[in-house]
Amino acid sequence: MKPFIVAIDGPAASGKGTLAHRLAQHFGLAHLDTGKLYRVAADLVLTRNGDPADPATAELAAQEAAAALIADPTLVFAPRLLSEEVTRASSVLAAIPAVRAALLGFQRSFAMDPPARAPGVAATGAVLDGRDIGSAVCPDAAVKLFVTASPETRAMRRVKELRGRGAAAIYEDVLQDLMERDARDSDRQAAPLLAAADAELIDTTALDADTVLARAVGIVARALKEWEWLQNCKR
Fold first, then answer.
1. Over 90: is that where the pLDDT of 117 sits?
2. pLDDT digit string (tens) for 122-138?
3. How confident is the model at residue 233 (pLDDT cuts 50, 70, 90)?
């Protein structure tokens, strides 16, 4: 049976991660934050005092990260992956085509055969969020959402998040960092950040998390109903 896949893309701090997690919970689907895969690879590079911008070093780390994640998917929950150092390194590393290629198989395997299985339709469903899920990783996803917000709003959210963790954060510095990251993500050769042609756009600038969730639930519910109908026709 073809899996029901929800692809959520968007820039940093747009709210896509929160939405992906809540949608997965709402519909009983597996969830993969693909950005954390690049963080695992970046952490490997930094642990070895390597340069995340070096293609050979980054590719090797990505290959090792993919193998390690297959053996132990819980690696993505390591607290150190949330550090600003890893965040910056992962953004640099993710722009390297060989790195994206090394992690592509893991992402697609997760989507096609989700590790978390629940009763009913959720047994073959997953929500993936990142930068290129709908455009490159899962172009045939049943639902594609592109979640965005103004750079200023995203910077304020990131500052609040960082300060909530006890980290010092200056708004102007965070805004500059986000804009530089947006440029790297959008300008890279391999799978740049962009909205798939058939993606539903959700601008969260003036919306709270509950409103965003309600809007997305409506979109996913309609698609899920159609998906179930198609699956029944094939039986």
1. no
2. 447 899 999 999 999 99
3. confident
Question: For 147, phi and psi rounded to 5 degrees?
Answer: -105, 125
Side chain identity at residue 139, one-letter code: P
Tokens matching residue 205: 């600038």
CA-to-CA dists, residue 108 to 5, 89, 138, angstroms? 10, 23, 7
Mean pLDDT of the chain: 91
Phi-psi region of 78 (alpha: psi -120 to 50; beta: other; left: phi over 0): beta
pLDDT of residue 235: 66
Residue 185 in contact with residue 193, Cβ under 8 Å?
yes
For 117-137, b/e burial (b = at least 16 CB within 10 A) is eeeebbbbbbbbbbbbbbbbb
**Which pLDDT score, from 0 to 100, does residue 122 have?**
45
Give the tokens for residue 60.
């090797």
Phi, psi of 17 (to 5 degrees): -65, -45
Q: Of the candidates 109, 120, 119, 117, which has an alpha carbon nearest to the alpha carbon of residue 231?
A: 120
The number of helix segments (H) and strand segments (E) in the chain equals: 8, 5
End-to-end CA distance of the chain: 9
Q: CA-CA distance, 17 to 65, in Å (whole number)?
A: 21
3-state secondary structure of 124: helix
Percentage of the chain with pLDDT > 70? 96
> H-helix or E-strand containing 4?
strand 4-9
**Contact present, 33 and 76 (Cβ < 8 Å):** yes
Strand partners, 130: 9
202-226: average pLDDT:
96
